[in-house]
Fold each of these.
Amino acid sequence: MSLTADQTCPLYVGGKWKEVVGKRSSQVFNPSRGSVIANVPMCGADEVNEVVAAAKGAFPMWRDTPPNERVQVLFRVKILLEDAFEELCLGISTEHGKTLSEARGDLRRGIEVVEFACGIPTLLMGESLENIARGIDCHTDRHPLGVVVGICPFNFPALVPMWMWPIAIACGNTFVLKPSEKVPLTMQRVVALLEKAGLPPGVLNIVHGGRECVDALLEHPDVAAISFVGSTPVAREIHRKGSLNGKRVQAAGGA
């Protein structure tokens, strides 16, 4: 999907691209030229409710899909990412300003996470120990949490989101991605490849925005867990607010 300067990045909700109307928007720049290449909507609670509902609706089906079947999508998208590698790297360079060599490193590290996630089924195995105490057996099982959220910075448009969603969906969760409003186009292109790879509708969704959008995600009762990468002050605030709302939070600062 390509956009022009007068077009706005759509949401990805339940397997469909959806235009957002009537919302304030932020401009996406090509730093090397100083030109506007797209606009991104500043979404709020209404849009967050919609994408979380789509993820929640897809969760029972995805949770019950055997792990070895879930990762088949990742095997396929890994091949598609390799086929589109140079095109994606040019897109990263255009919206972020990285050199092409830096963009290649960004995407290559992300693809390595997809490769790792393809091996998730063996890591999801539980453990058991009989007679751990008199008359007591111990069994450990691993279960997906539900709807999980990824909130990403601008400095690695491919790598940081791909730290998050491949592992999350391989483990049986459904995912809501909030990319940086400065670099939303890379993940838009990657999600189009996930569509082509056969990812079921609702398993991965995209919502755009700033603080209002993030606050709505942190407070949503159907969100089970949140991953964040960004500055330390924001990481602390996301950890505080997410924890107060009963979420599992991993917040990586210093980025």
Amino acid sequence: MRWPTLLLPTIVAASLPIKLEIKRALDSGLANIHVTYTALVPSETIFTYGLCEAQTPGEAHHLITRTTDRRHDRLVWLIPADIASGGCLSAWDQHQNLLGRSKSLSFVPSLRTTRRRLRKRQEEMGIRMDNSSSIDAEGPWFDGVAALTGKELAAVDAAAAKSKEIVIVGAGMAGLMTWLALNESGMTNRTLETQVRDNIRKWVPCDFRSLSNIAPPTRRCKSKTTNSFSTSSTKSIVATATIQTSPSPSSPGSKAVPMGCTPLAGSACPNGKIPTQADILANSSLVPESVTDPVTTAAEGAVDAIFNNQTFIREMARNIFRAHKSFLDTGLNGLGDDDWSEFAYLHNYLDYALNTTLVASSGAGPGGFWEILLDSVNFAATTRQTIDGGLSRLPSAFHPLVDDITHMDRKVQRVSYHQSTKRVTLQWKTKPLDRTFQNASYNYAVVTVPMALVRTWRLPAFSPLLSTAIDTYGYEQVCKVALQFQTRFWEQFEKPIYGSCSTITDITGISNICYPSSDINSTGSGVMLASYTGSDDGLRWPSVPEEEHVQYVVDAMAEIHGGMVYEQYTGQYNRRCWILDEYETVS
């Protein structure tokens, strides 16, 4: 269906007191109607879409909204599915007199072209955000969309909305990404509050930049084949890095380099050297069998069957939303994951004894399966993409964009909300020993600092659920030690190690060892992430004096890589234990 069009004479349109415009192509289900008042309109205004020659609002295809507020300059238009091209937007007063009319509008000039464009956009996104991806369109993810369906949306004063004062507390990646999203939406009245004197990772000389987050996985090889598939859930990270910096080419990941050493107790090659992962894959007898019993082995097998389900891990990599929904509904052999921790699954459902459960789950306690499954996807990646010079360059790239609106060294201690003014107030001290608090108030506050830090603040009264989430959200402690060497000697071995975190050891306090994945085979110094520990080790080792801890790590590297470690070590190091960081407290 296409409505006939009445071309309103220009002189008549210009004489009407309301001007209606659409400034962008009508190719989605939502649009902004730009409204300009050229004369006083004293009564309620009714906005409709329908025939361009309509004489009354009753002839319209549908009502858009009605308002008595003259301060708005935009209307939010929720476009019905049965809309047709060739109609006009119209404005009427309460006596059904025409106050304004737009030009004839056209929706989607070519349905085939639009479908092709949408298909291409969805392919670029990696995940189709609709029922075809098994995303629950009736579930919490789309509650906001469902709430809009069939609603009469209010008029919007865009200038007033964009004038709201918004403070983002915390200038880590969450805070910076919040700033980026608001900035892209035209919200310019924003402030960043950060508790450090410089933005993220102020201690990053070039060699130490890879002490930050692990590089995002982009592809994963299928076990025992050369087939690979993309990891779609990290595409937004790579896209942001592309906008803000110049990402480096994809590099091998932690499981892609079989030359990493495996210095486990009792493991050795016939020549006495520590075996590599490739050596162990070729000859499993190089590693002594662990002492266990058949019942514990069976319990461990039950857990491994879940974590090493390659079919499901592949589905997670392809579509994290569909996989999550599937696991919640039918995971754990139909039980669904929402109600079962790893410990409860083994003990209460599979009926293993407490001691067996404790050993098989490595004391996992109340931890769930999903987090470990995510680690299975991320750490098993065979291709990663990072930023040349380290991921720390991503937050650093925000400096010229946000420095002018960022307040450094504000350690927020109190947050309050005033019902009468509808404003949020932050309080802090200029110096720790001051008795007087400084304060600033805003329309909205977005808090992006870790929950563990928020727990130390004085907060307004929240709902019991939100308060419980703040008080109990779990974190793991991590402690890292990086050592600088005169050369990248590990790349000169008979079996060279190129990048990755492929060396894993059971030496206490070391755990994972990571090698730089950028500037492979370059000359000059190189930094090895010589200790990457978490959980209990990440909590206990920070109590060891720093120099003693670093020397322990140097000695462990010499045990693994040989005496050249002492010759090559420059004495430069960086220990990063997050529990010692007053601004983060957690990793």
Amino acid sequence: MKHITRVLFFIFIFQFQNCGIKEFPDSLQSTKTIEIKRDFLKGDSPEFIIEIIDTINLEVPGNPPLTSVHDLAFSQDFFLLVDRRQGLLKFDNKGSFLGKIGEKGEGPDEYTIPYAIHLDEKENVVLVADWQKMTVISYSLEGKFESTSNKIPGHPISFYKDNDTLLVVQETLNGTKEKPRQVLISSIEPKTLEVKNWERPLYGYHSNYTHIHPIPRILSRVNNAILFYMPINRGEISSHRDRDTIFRKQEGRLTQNTYFISLDLTTHFNWE
């Protein structure tokens, strides 16, 4: 009897100690390790460090208010900035406004949606890609209109210098699963604006939504490879995987190289 009483006493003490312990789901206790490999982005540098050298304040009295900046181009003594509403603006390196290049409008010497620029100081011109008109317009660095290209097959979104050849990256607006939207490439001569279109698209994709620029953007040439960035369309989980992607160009095609995964407001990285 004493033995049974002693056993019951220890059982009671054990249960009393455990009643305050909170049970957690196994999913919260489990961990997952993701290996990050970023050597392909380092180039020849042993360390991948971004250092802030200087900042320029553009929100000063006398400067036009900026709304949506699409592109930048830097020279030794000035820089150019494309704002969707303000157009192409010129600043000195201290951030003082020097003037506007071109005007927004429907005329042949005007742009409607300026989306990207290319600065060619050798030819003393700046090229403006008009997304809506599907043309490229050239101005002198003093602001004088020079020329307008013929209409190109897609909506231009960026310029890219491939060795001595200037490329215009474009997107098509509509597409189906049978005939996908495409990324198109054309070469352009900065002085004459003569355009030569590639025979076949660089990349094709399908989307149930219509957005400006949900396609690969050229990032840079790293380790002799051209990298492209595919931004995800936020909130479109039904038609897109919830991840951002970097593509590497191989044999004329884009292959997935890096994922930036965004889940529950926390950014995770899966470098492959």
Amino acid sequence: MSNATIEDDAVESDPRLLFIYTYLTKTTKFKVDKWQKMMNTDMYKTMIMDFLEKPQHSVLLVTLTSAGTLVPSLTFPTTGKTKSSYFARVKPEPITAENIRKCLIFGDVSPKPLEDLAVLVEEVFVPVFCNPANHKGWPAVVVEDV
């Protein structure tokens, strides 16, 4: 069986699932059998379909665990050991094949977001704000505060 046929079976001809699958394979680098295993678990498939069809769910988080399984969640975990991918609803309406790109924002969540934020502030924002060349056009009060 060709790889394209395997992928077609994995997303069950639902363009919304294909969108999620395509993003996850680009960012997480897993084999198609991980997706199939997740979608063959009724609880996980129901969770994903509920997110797509019910506007009250604002976020879908999919994590590739250290055990190598894909696990969806409708809430952010309090702790994480691996990177996750999120799909967040912008508008409170069902996600369709036609509106998926307009209604979702998506990206990755680091397992250590606070540490990553600290590095971003220290290595990017502080040097930019402290550089006098960047102060042109700023009010004097703001320059003094920085």
